[in-house]
Design a protein that fits this description.
heterodimer; A: mainly alpha; Non-ribosomal Peptide Synthetase Peptidyl Carrier Protein, Chain A; 4 helices; globular; B: mainly beta; Thiol Ester Dehydrase, Chain A; six-stranded antiparallel beta sheet; about 15% helix; about 45% strand
């Protein structure tokens, strides 16, 4: 698992208080919302704030969120891409 | 003072903001609530020792947070969606002048997170994060 992906998973677990969950229990490809981790809109706001605080990357609007929150892999890619800029 | 009923739909006995001291819509609001011995809830909370219920301190922050909105809340679909990390550090009593400070901590997908602090004479009374949903 890439360093960044692991950090993303740790951030998700910490920020959303998914107590007892470990990074390897989060499927890289599973959707974060709905069927995957089953997150809701309040969790989405928490993640947006966490991503900004931890990685310095802003998710400006819902369109960007739709792309970034497809999966942990998509979120990791999104952060990697925008952190450089 | 006249602007408060025009902005908030809340009314006696549930209007819990007396004055707006500072206001930058979308960013930050500082409001004031003067606690008096005549508050209806203090008659029962508690008969021998009146103190403001913690839940109402949070409500004061929510009402102050309403002034982050530029437009009046009359008829607006805005609701409290969550309360996080509420802490009550010291009680609020009749005679207290409470300073309610609320700032926008973040927003996404129709949800806003507000960081609220109540102080009295510089001493922290309550801190809480509020999640507000706009329909």
């Amino acid at each position: 698992m890439s360093d960044l992906k692991l950090r993303v998973k740790h951030m998700i677990i910490e920020r959303l208080k998914l107590e007892g969950m470990t990074p390897d229990q989060i499927d890289d490809a599973a959707p974060l919302f709905g069927d995957g981790l089953g997150l809701d809109s309040i969790d989405a706001l928490e993640l947006v704030l966490g991503i900004e605080q931890v990685f310095g990357v802003k998710i400006e609007d819902e369109a960007a969120g739709l792309q970034a929150f497809k999966s942990v892999q998509a979120l990791t890619d999104f952060i990697a891409e925008h952190a450089k800029a | 003072m006249a602007e408060i009923p025009a902005h908030l739909p809340h009314r006696y006995p549930f209007l819990l903001v007396d004055r707006i001291l500072e206001r930058e819509p979308g960013q930050r609001v500082v409001a004031e609530k003067l606690v008096t011995a005549g508050e209806p809830y203090l008659q029962g909370h508690f008969p021998d020792r009146p103190l403001v219920p913690g839940a109402l301190l949070v409500e004061m922050l929510a009402q102050a947070g309403g002034f982050l909105e530029a437009e009046s809340l009359h008829g607006a679909g805005i609701f409290l969606a969550g309360i996080q990390d509420a802490r009550f550090r010291t009680p609020a009593f009749p005679g207290d002048r409470l300073r309610l400070e609320v700032r926008l901590a973040g927003a996404f997908g129709g949800l806003m997170k507000l960081a609220g602090t109540i102080t009295c004479e510089g001493q922290e009374v309550c801190t809480a994060s509020l999640l507000v949903k706009r329909l």
